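Handout, section 3.2

Students often ask what a structure token actually looks like in practice. Rather than define it abstractly, here is a full record for Lipid transporter ATP-binding/permease protein. The first block is the sequence as you would receive it.
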Amino acid sequence: AQATTEAVRVSIIDSLTILAMIGVMLWNSWRLTLVLLVMVPTIAAVVYFVSKRYRLISRGLQRSMGNITGVVDEIVGAWREVRIYGGQKYESGRFHAVADNNRVLNVKISATNAISTALVQLLAASALAGIVFTATRHAFLNGMTAGKFMSIFIAMAGILPPLKRMTNVQSLLQRGIAAAQDVFAVLDEPCEPDSSTRSLDGLRQGIEFRDVTMRYAPGTPPALRAASFTCAAGKVTAVVGRSGSGKTTVAHLIPRFYEPESGSILVDGHALGEYQLASLRGQISWVGQDVVIFNGSVAENIAYGEMAGAREEDIIAAARAANAWDFIAQMPRGLHSPIGQRGFMVSGGQRQRIAIARAILKNAPILILDEATSALDTESERLIQEALTRLMQDRTTLVIAHRLSTVEHAHRIIVLDQGRVLEQGSHEELLARPDGAYALLHRMQFSAPRGD
């Protein structure tokens, strides 16, 4: 940004300087000045094509820098796998490939800058030579004094340095324009549609999916196919199925992270799109399978966002309910202990319990648990399940799970496969269908081979 600002400043000052010098030349001899103006279209053409090339290369350079950052971030983040599987040579080659591409683009920028500067200087020098040659012709000598000639000569010579500087700043200017285009492309992205005025205060009737079809990109297979089911208010609804069956998609649709392709989702009898986003999401607590921990203290992570003013007693109560207080109390500064970027100072199970405590503290009427206990050991999972069972009372809870042991308590279980609802009912009802999809999943998970 600073380089671009400097380039704009130089361009403005030097442009005014060139115009002033041309004005001096016109004042002294407009006929001699025409010799210079003959070169203007050629210089303009050079600047146009050079600017176009600069911009094209600068766009590639922006993408190249993004590729380098992405590769480095990926390699550093996966350092364990790189070392264990001997990927150092492969990753080194991958980094050198993107770095070499960046180097080639920078060489192109430098070469274009050198050629364009030399060409503009040559054209300007040719124009100066043309003025000297024309001024010494017999037709001009009679009407020109030595003072006028020197004024024109000095003005022409004064044009050369600004022309050189303006050519040099083209690379900075075009690189800044290319970067600005990327920034403004993001800024110009439309915001989430949120023109509704209806507020959601609690949940009384429940959530209903009516023939909902959802795909993440045009031309891809649907993640959900005409799915219809109901999450009753104050009850626990579990969604199970194989990987890729559309379970997480169901969880993403309720807070309107995505919009369905067809069908409708009703909350208390009204379409989901009728509610204000802030009002809708303010009624939802979420614990995802990819736990998000922010760089800060334990308390700041539990009392996050709108809960930042929560009392310490309430934060401790939420931590106790999530079975997180035991390890928090042992930390050097307790609740106020920093846990690092992405929570690298605590274990995976501890991060997940902090995220559960965050959801408990929000105390929202809708609770979404997307594999919320997947990173817990058996003892912690048992304690968490007891806490969640108490938390789920009088709340509309949607549980996404692979492990059927975590959803046996659910009032209703939805079985998905390839985006379709295969069957639904309680745990006992579904087990009573020996040939059903849920019974098959149950046998696969619990019928372990017997040893001696």
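Discussion prompt for tutorial groups: The radius of gyration is 35 Å. How would you have guessed this from the sequence alone?
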